[in-house]
UniProtKB/TrEMBL annotation, chain A:
Species annotation: Paractinoplanes ovalisporus
Name by which UniProt lists this protein: Uncharacterized protein
Presence of the UniProt keyword Transmembrane helix in the record: yes
TM regions (residue ranges): 54-77
Keyword list, A-Z: Membrane, Transmembrane, Transmembrane helix
TrEMBL record, chain B:
GO function terms (MF aspect): metallopeptidase activity
Phylogenetic placement of the source organism: Bacteria, Bacillati, Actinomycetota, Actinomycetes, Micromonosporales
Keyword field: Hydrolase, Membrane, Metal-binding, Metalloprotease, Protease, Transmembrane, Transmembrane helix, Zinc
Cofactor(s) the protein requires to work: Zn(2+)
Name of the protein this chain belongs to: M48 family metalloprotease
Region feature Disordered, mapped onto this chain: 682-705
Transmembrane segments: 83-105, 195-213, 219-237, 295-316, 336-355, 402-419, 434-455, 462-482, 502-526, 533-551, 566-583, 590-609, 629-648
All residue ranges annotated as the Peptidase M48 domain in the record: 169-291
Presence of the UniProt keyword Zinc in the record: yes
Keyword presence, Transmembrane: yes
């Protein structure tokens, strides 16, 4: 993930700014924590907690976006078609100075990504929140599309 | 937020913590005893054999047994004291282990959690009755749930950063819930519970590791007991933690977060909840908030564990006590002391649960002074009025909520007798006393019914007296149940009466508890006294006296006639018990605790008076006629008392009511007043009329948040 961190962070910030603006204030600190924390430490449930979860959205957003960034090389990518994986890989490898990105996800590919995000976010979030996150990520990817942002 | 202080609710989980302590002590003591056998057992055997040889060489004749016994005991006292020290050492090691883990685990948790930041929230502590406010902190970004922990000299409420996107009312609810845990003293105790789960297997592993598992059958039986202790520990920990969550929710709701908590929990997912989950499901928590009566009662599993541990405290404790006190002036008392401990344990667990009631809410604040009309907040129970929350919690007027717990207690006592923690039972040739497995559980469940009956007649503030009486009744039940098992073969063999009659005769008219049982029964009668019940008992007694005199029976000798008198008195009392139990359940048993002795003593008094001039020793005769029927009544109450927990409990109409004519006029007038009260409360709580839900009748709802 580290090699795509700049893109992951940028897409994640767009998601948070557009859909969870009340957490934007914490974005920098949360993103830095997410970058340095080991994957097992990114979820912590105390053994004697209240029994109701109030997950911070920033790590979940970054987790979802980094999932897409690494989809080409990880098992998560098996849920996506090859064309989708390649487009995502290209998008997250992209450097703005290299010029505009290629034409971005087709509607069917967006649906694939939507389903992937929604299923992975169903762990920490309830169904409504997971749907909202998936829509927000699709929206951010569109914003990061051929025209850049 | 309001500044109104909310009193901390009384909690039955205190008794459950005591159970956890007992479980630790018993497990540690068993491990300690076996460690003794593995390390110095051969020396114990050699010294014991030498003591017997020496005593027999000095007094070899069989009739010298009473002279040999004290010499043998004095000779063996040293090794027996050492054995008791090993048991006590094991118990202390277990406690120390649990305390160590309770100290260590919160620190490990905070270290694993990582950096925390102060959170700008305060002000809930005073409202929830906490003198030293906890420090509120934000945990790292990966933290999902709020939790409270005590470490490094401070109590800390650690919040996930995600709570910041909650609405203010929901954030208040979260903080109040966590502060309610602090107010209830849960923080240390919950970690002690977790410490138990870590310490128990480690300490229990010491003996088999020392022995190298060289006797498969023995260690299999030991492992079974260790597994049962572990299962009991888990059940207790689960019950404690689940109840603590519900109580913290309730406390937070009373402080003004009722609606917010219901919304929060309603939106929460069941997620990782499962049958063995330490947390109640969100749905259960919402239901308990809407209906606080659900907080009352006792899970059958906890009752079963309480019963099993109580009989083990009694049996294993008596064994250890016998070793500890051997050769000392306290030598005759280990069984009595262990029985009282076991009785106190049951009184603290079953008794506290029975006497518990939902908290009576706020002590100040808007709307607090307004109370619902008395006539509708209370239900008359044999002339006394108890809060409806209490009467409903006791199952008065609806299905009995104690049936499962009663059966659990009964089965737990039986299980504790079948698989107990006396190290002798680990030997392959240990024989089970099946009569004890029959009598002791029935007697203990009967005692539980009596304690339930006490709680129906007296308000919760009487619980300390109820606790003392309950401990005595439970200890007496253990004594009588075990005594009956011992007497059974002799009682049946020594007479040509039917076996049941022979056993009852011995238990009621010829046992060691002929003084203690009547005293206990009279103490219960004083505690539950009601003129109506007394009058009823006198009437039944008079009818029985007349029947005893008028019914023609073949003449017997003087002793045979005296026995008929005792039976007549006892059966008059027992008839009252049965009728009242069937009619009114636990409330009926409460009345019967007054009426039955009254009926029995009326019969005895009638016989004594009739033959006043015939007695050679009138005082001795009076003592016999007073104690024997009452003892029989006490034994019979223990035999059937469990029904108090199994049958629906119905309150009486009270001495001033008009039987058969329905409610009195002032009660009819009270209903519209109740409706007005509810509407007013709803308006107070929600700011709009008629839209709120009152928590429970008789208990004012929360102040506006």
């Amino acid at each position: 993930m580290q090699e795509h961190w700049g893109e992951v962070r940028a897409v994640g910030e767009v998601v948070v700014r557009e859909s969870y603006p009340q957490e934007l204030e914490d974005f920098d600190a949360a993103a830095e924590w997410f970058r340095t924390a080991s994957p097992p430490a990114r979820t912590f449930r105390p053994p004697v907690g209240m029994g109701v979860e109030f997950a911070s959205i920033v790590p979940i957003v970054l987790s979802a976006v980094s999932l897409l960034a690494t989809a080409v090389a990880t098992a998560a990518g098996e849920e996506l078609t090859r064309a989708t994986r390649e487009k995502l890989a290209a998008a997250f490898r992209r450097r703005r100075e290299l010029g505009p990105a290629p034409a971005f996800l087709t509607p069917e590919q967006e649906r694939e990504v939507y389903r992937l995000i929604r299923s992975r976010a169903a762990g920490p979030l309830d169904d409504e929140e997971a749907r909202r996150l998936a829509e927000a990520v699709i929206g951010a990817l569109r914003l990061r599309g051929p025209d850049g942002s | 937020m309001t500044a109104a202080a909310v009193r901390r609710p009384p909690s039955a989980t205190r008794g459950r913590y005591l159970l956890i302590m007992v479980l630790l002590l018993l497990g540690g003591a068993l491990a300690g005893q076996l460690t003794h056998h593995l390390t110095v057992g051969l020396n114990w055997r050699d010294v014991t054999e030498a003591c017997f040889r020496d005593a027999y060489s000095r007094w070899p004749a069989a009739e010298d047994a009473l002279r040999r016994a004290p010499v043998i005991n004095a000779c063996r006292a040293g090794v027996e004291h050492r054995f008791a020290l090993f048991a006590a050492g094991g118990a202390l090691l277990m406690l120390a282990g649990a305390a160590f883990f309770a100290w260590l685990l919160p620190r490990v948790l905070l270290l694993r959690l990582g950096p925390r930041r102060p959170a700008p929230f305060e002000g809930w502590a005073a409202q929830l009755g906490v003198r030293r406010a906890p420090e509120v902190e934000f945990g790292p970004w990966g933290l999902r749930e709020p939790f409270t922990v005590r470490a490094w000299g401070a109590t800390r409420v650690v919040l996930p950063p995600g709570v910041r996107r909650l609405p203010a009312a929901h954030l208040d609810a979260v903080l109040r819930h966590e502060t309610a845990h602090v107010a209830a003293g849960d923080v240390t105790l919950v970690w002690l519970t977790r410490g138990l789960l870590w310490a128990l297997p480690l300490v229990m592993l010491v003996p088999p590791v020392l022995a190298g598992f060289d006797d498969g059958g023995f260690w299999l039986r030991y492992g079974l007991r260790a597994a049962l202790l572990g299962a009991a520990a888990y059940l207790l920990a689960r019950a404690v933690m689940r109840d603590r969550e519900l109580e913290a929710d309730r406390h937070a709701a009373l402080a003004g977060s009722s609606d917010a908590l219901i919304e929060l929990l309603g939106a929460a997912r069941g997620g990782r909840r499962h049958l063995l989950s330490m947390h109640p499901s969100p749905a259960e928590r919402v239901a308990a908030l809407r209906e606080p009566g659900r907080l009352l009662g006792m899970p059958a599993s906890v009752a079963a564990v309480a019963g099993a541990l109580a009989v083990n405290i009694w049996s294993a404790g008596a064994g250890i006590g016998l070793s500890a006190f051997l050769g000392t002036p306290l030598e005759p008392y280990p069984q009595l002391v262990a029985g009282l401990f076991a009785g106190a344990l049951l009184a603290a667990t079953w008794g506290l649960a029975v006497w518990r009631r939902p908290p009576r809410a706020v002590t100040s604040g808007p709307g607090v002074g307004r109370r619902p009309p008395r006539a509708v907040t209370s239900g008359p129970v044999l002339g006394r009025r108890l809060p409806r929350a209490v009467t409903s919690g006791l199952g008065i007027g609806r299905r009995p909520p104690w049936a499962g717990a009663t059966l659990g207690l009964l089965l737990g006592v039986a299980a504790g007798l079948l698989v107990n923690l006396d190290p002798r039972t680990l030997a392959g040739d240990w024989r089970i006393d099946w009569w004890a497995v029959l009598y002791v559980p029935v007697a203990v469940a009967g005692a539980a019914g009596c304690v339930l009956a006490l709680a129906t007649i007296r308000a919760p503030r009487w619980w300390p007296a109820g606790f003392v009486l309950g401990a005595a009744v439970f200890a007496g039940a253990l004594w009588i149940g075990a005594g009956l098992a011992v007497q059974q073969p002799v009682a049946v063999a020594a007479t040509d009466r039917p076996a049941l009659v022979a056993v009852l005769w011995t238990a009621g008219f010829g046992s060691a508890w002929l003084t203690a049982a009547p005293i206990a029964l009279l103490a219960l009668a004083v505690f539950t006294f009601s003129r109506t019940a007394l009058l009823g008992g006198l009437v039944v007694g008079l009818v029985a006296v007349v029947g005893r005199w008028l019914v023609p029976l073949p003449a017997l000798d003087a002793y045979g006639e005296a026995q008929r008198d005792w039976w007549a008195a006892a059966l008059a009392g027992f008839a009252v018990v049965v009728v009242m139990l069937v009619w009114r359940g636990a409330s009926g048993l409460a009345a019967a605790l007054v009426a039955a002795p009254a009926a029995a003593l009326t019969v005895s008094a009638g016989v004594l008076l009739r033959y006043m001039t015939d007695w050679d020793e009138p005082l001795a005769a009076a003592r016999v006629y007073l104690t024997r029927p009452l003892t029989m009544v006490a034994v019979l109450i223990l035999a059937v008392g469990a029904a108090a927990g199994l049958l629906p409990s119905r309150p009486g109409r009270g001495p001033r009511s008009r039987p058969g004519r329905g409610p009195r006029r002032k009660d009819w007038f009270a209903w519209p007043r109740l409706r007005r009260y509810r509407l007013a409360r709803a308006a107070d709580e929600t700011g709009r009329p008629g839209s709120g839900v009152i928590g429970e009748a008789g208990v004012p709802g929360p102040p506006p948040g």
